[in-house]
Amino acid sequence: MPNVHTCIAALALLCLPACVNAQSDGIDASAVAxxxxxxxxWLFATHPQPEFSMDVGDVRARFxxxxxxxxxxxxxxxxxxxxxxxxPHFADGHVTLRLPSEEYEAWLADGGADFSLPVRIxxxxxxxxxxxxxxxxxxxxxxxxxxxxxxxxxLIAAAVSRANGDTPGLRRHVVETRFASYLWALTGGxxxxxxxxxxxxxxxxxxxxDPQRERAGQDPEPWSLAFQDxxxxxxxxxxxxxxxxxxxxxxxASFAEITARGSEILVIDISENGGGAHMLSDHLLAYLTDQxxxxxxxxxxxxxxxxxxxxxxxxxxxVISMPFAQWVEPPAEQANRFEGRFAFLVGAGTYSxxxxxxxxxxxxxxxxxxxxxxxxxxxxxxxxxxxxxANTDLEAxxxxxxxxxxxxxxxxxxxxxxxxxxxxxxxxxxxxxxHLRTH
Length: 439
Prior knowledge:
With 439 residues, the protein is α+β, with helices and mostly antiparallel strands.
């Protein structure tokens, strides 16, 4: 069963779909109800082990409640609001119902205002993120209490109650990273956004956001390399298979530069890496270890026409559970392989293939894992299938694999760090570098 960790699955957590083809207004309640039935049937015919993450009886009952409570007509956005309340109950970032992104993009193109503030969620409070641009009139850490005359607390609750993800922490992170589109979905958007900001002294002021000022300081790079004296910081924010060639070239050049500078310490930051394909993380590990390793020890699979040939005698629709390993043999000799002390930094944004990488590194004692830990499970689902609902054109996602990490631990625990760290990303990196210098 080669390449089962090629995680287009990561896209299910962090992206909204890119196509839309149905009329977005005036969908009758009976048509939406038919889509609920279609979605439910498809989900349970696709997922190989729904009980891995969800209470199946509870989820079935909630499908009934949603279906019975529909009163139309609905726009597509309104239909998503009505149905997406099921998303948290799947308790898996790879199981969701998604709203086509092009409606939001079309709304922006027609003059709608983008909510440009980078934010983080703490309980029922919305704070300005550390990445805010220096020219902004609001500062990092300030609390946004009101948006367009609406208290923020109920908006956060409404968004998180429709987000997908393994845990409440992961669902909050998903809303943080997509806050502008969630705000549009909940409110229908606005010509501009007024926010009331409260500073640490309790002083408040209301401003109309200027997207040229109130924005993130810069778009995050997919990868970057920085240095602090004898330490190198390699930040990897994606393992997307679509950029494999670029990733490999970046990794090759980075380790050549790390070698040339004589760095003795290396931090690999995957705290915002939502996943991708194992080929990219395998290329990275070749520069860090020559140890034979596997990312998994067992798999539960739904048999499809695409994977049927991998299991002789199987039939489409069957569910097969079996021991399974994908052994990787790094080259014995690797130019510029790092010989110093290194560790991986994980966080709430670490998901899918990035979690698989962290679990592999931990299970084979390749390097310590540091940070607050992950919000996603160390054991994950994968190979996400997508399905358009006939009437609303909303898109359902569900996996066909459930993986067990190499250690054989089949619990629902997240990645537990070897070196627990908290605080800002910069503070965590500084603390990790200090630890590596003395251990």
